[in-house]
Amino acid sequence: xxxxxxxxxxxxxxxxxxxxxxxxxxxxxxxxxxxxxxxxxxxxxxxxxxxxxxxxxxxxxxxxxxxxxxxxxxxxxxxxxxxxxxxxxxxxxxxxxxxxxxxxxxxxxxxxxxxxxxxxxxxxxxxxxxxxxxxxxxxxxxxxxxxxxxxxxxxxxxxxxxxxxxxxxxxxxxxxxxxxxxxxxxxxxxxxxxxxxxxxxxxxxxxxxxxxxxxxxxxxxxxxxxxxxxxxxxxxxxxxxxxxxxxxxxxxxxxxxxxxxxxxxxxxxxxxxxxxxxxxxxxxxxxxxxxxxxxxxxxxxxxxxxxxxxxxxxxxxxxxxxxxxxxxxxxxxxxxxxxxxxxxxxxxxxxxxxxxxxxxxxxxxxxxxxxxxxxxxxxxxxxxxxxxxxxxxxxxxxxxxxxxxxxxxxxxxxxxxxxxxxxxxxxxxxxxxxxxxxxxxxxxxxxxxxxxxxxxxxxxxxxxxxxxxxxxxxxxxxxxxxxxxxxxxxxxxxxxxxxxxxxxxxxxxxxxxxxxxxxxxxxxxxxxxxxxxxxxxxxxxxxxxxxxxxxxxxxxxxxxxxxxxxxxxxxxxxxxxxxxxxxxxxxxxxxxxxxxxxxxxxxxxxxxxxxxxxxxxxxxxxxxxxxxxxx
Length: 631
Ligand code: ADP
Hints:
single chain; 9-stranded mixed beta sheet
């Protein structure tokens, strides 16, 4: 027998478990029982195809025993068990689901209070035990193994004797200290309470031998009360999703979610569905209140747990969730799937498709309800997963567009909140033809753009597009309720009346030479200079011709250099003919060309600054400003 060390991260986690002043030690039992239940689930699944197991499957369950003399609490299961390799992998390292998420949390915080608010798994036993012994025998194996550890300095594995398949977790409970009465975990009362609180829904019986006082006299005779020992089942065994709402409070569901799906925060939304139609199923779904660990990496696997008549068929059934709802976690239970269906066949199963359709509709309607009734909650959701919904519009050539369009919200010029497209259209004045938008870095910056003024003055609301993907989303939508989208600075924005256009033509004609002069002074950085109809109080701004917008140019400029020229927006410098600076420019153009050139350059730099673009030659810009100021 050789002593082995834990992997580095495991050691750190163990250390925190053992030494933390963490107060919610209770959850250790939930974690150990949850592992036992998973192990039984796995054997149950095998029993569907293996007759020898099936014979025993009626007895599958979890057993709790207390040995007060030796100060141990034991959780046993007759599930799948572990072989040597699995023991090493599962209990010697933190490489598994919940523990991994936990580890990422550890990297960010030393706050002991966070520990254990979510699934920290097997190691949580060390919060109450100073020694843990695991005795296990894998299904269909002749070898039994004993794993022992007293904490950080490592563990040992040796062969031992065990007659049945499954696992015993023997926890040597710590002696009582001033702060904590560990011996309570050896009391029936505490154990029963913890199981009711955290593990009631476990689908297998959690049994314990208990002492009760009973009338042992035959009927009709004088009652005779005696202490007897009997096996009691401590949990109701009704899975939480199968219970009526009155018996599964939101808190219960949140508790279940946290322990089952490795989150430390309550879910933002809990969605329950009890469908009785073409296919009957029960679903309990959760929208996380935070972005799950690794969510935006390719390693993230979407999917729902799929149960068929109480048997776990698949841990992450991806066919049940469309990509645009891949953040949803939860469980689906149906009696209508054939149990011995293979996983490959399941992919094409018609019933499964019907369920997936029903679930998608339900998620959508619940999100919509939240949007309408609890805008702040929806804003929270949007902050985390809005981008996923937006991808739903543009991905796969827009085939999911209609499914998600009602869930889109944008910041707008109206106020600080978010608006749906439907509400935007409802507010449109009768004479407003298009849905207007403007792109930029942030709502604050966009609201100050010169080109927004005219639109706002007319009383037209502007959608503020601040995500890289937003412009693609808008073009992906095409039209909403027959209304086209228009960028406020588009040439054909419809913001200028025919009369105004006519007057503009004249002004443009009169100032043709001046504009050509400005273009020449600035050079290739702009495609042209024009007299603008879109400015009210500000002197200049940059608009764009062609398909590459300013936001796209900024986006491309951040991409790594691959040797090819990066796409640039074709920029137009637009001048406000009614502004005092324009008048100064004009008079300089007539009398002092050198000065006119300087004014042109400063105006151009100003326009770039407002648009959030860098200035190519800041020294020259600064020199000219200094000169003008000193004049
Ligand atoms: P998690 O449950 O999040 O994967 P744990 O640390 O609780 O993390 O457990 C690690 C792994 O150890 C489990 O995934 C499982 O494979 C194995 N394991 C733990 N307890 C048991 C058990 N009672 N029977 C069989 N395997 C178990």
